Amino acid sequence: MLVAAAVCPCPPLLVPEVAAGAAPELDALRAACLDAIGVLAAARPDRLVVVGPADEAGRGAHPQGAAGSFRGFGVDLEVRLGAARTAPERELPPSLAVGAWLLSRTDWADAPLEALGVAESLPRDRAAATGRELAASAPRVALLVMGDGSACRTVKAPGYFDERAEPFDAAAARALGAADTAALAALDEERAAALLASGRACWQVLAGAGEDAGLNGRLLREEAPYGVGYFVAAWS
């Protein structure tokens, strides 16, 4: 059963070494992410699963101890998903590496860890089914859900400006902040893809996991500093 969830954005710029001189711009976002993870620890879960968007190579399960790095972003920095228990063969995709980095900042030791890389194109029904499976995998399950909103909020955004971006992000923020699983499940797949919203499928995994959990939500942070929607929420 899902007992808690934290929703965080996943830009590698969250890692100060990657952001370099721009690091202070995201200080408040980092702090909100750590606050959300604190809610996970307080729930005393039996199992924590980090869920994030991934390309084909990064999809599927990643065990505790899996490694990721930010070398692709010009920084020789490696992170691990908790204390190593195995010798994983695959590297964490960037979204899960950011999740692992956040957990390392909290010295997470409250429950066993694993991660799941999700295709951004995963249909909503399959996403919901995946979430139900995760919620049923242990008596007390917590999720750290990584993913960004639209990338089309300004002309300098990765996807340029699209007038549909802000309303899409507003709807996602309301749903995440209210732990409204029905509203999350209703987010439009085609529009999310057009707006480059990497978090849509992962949020719908969360919607499936939280269907019958009766959790309350709080939106801890919402901003779009680079024309990309970033949201931090906690469910408990």
Structure description:
The structure is a single chain. Helix 4 packs across helix 8. Helix content is 33%, strand content 21%. The protein contains eight helices and nine strands. The protein has 236 residues and is an alpha/beta fold. A hairpin with a 6-residue loop joins strand 8 (217-223) and strand 9 (230-235). The mean pLDDT is 96. The strands form two sheets. The chain has a seven-stranded mixed beta sheet, sandwiched between helices. The chain has a two-stranded antiparallel ribbon with strand order 4-5.
Explain the layout of strands and helices.
Blueprint: E1 2-8, H1 16-19, H2 27-42, E2 47-53, E3 60-63, E4 67-69, E5 78-80, H3 94-105, E6 113-118, H4 124-135, E7 141-146, H5 165-178, H6 181-185, H7 189-194, H8 200-209, E8 217-223, E9 230-235
Parallel strand pairs: 1-7, 2-6, 2-7
Antiparallel strand pairs: 1-9, 3-6, 4-5, 8-9
Helix pairs in contact: 4-8
Gross geometry: globular
The chain-level structural class is alpha/beta
The percentage helix is 25-40%
Distance between the termini: 12 Å
What integer value in Å does the Rg equal? 16 Å
Parts with pLDDT < 50 across at least 5 consecutive residues: none
Query: How are strands sequenced across the largest beta sheet?
Result: 3-6-2-7-1-9-8
Percentage beta strand: 15-25%
Topology, number of strands: 9
Order of helices and strands: EHHEEEEHEHEHHHHEE
| Average pLDDT number | 96
Summed up, the helix count is 8
Largest sheet: 7 strands, mixed
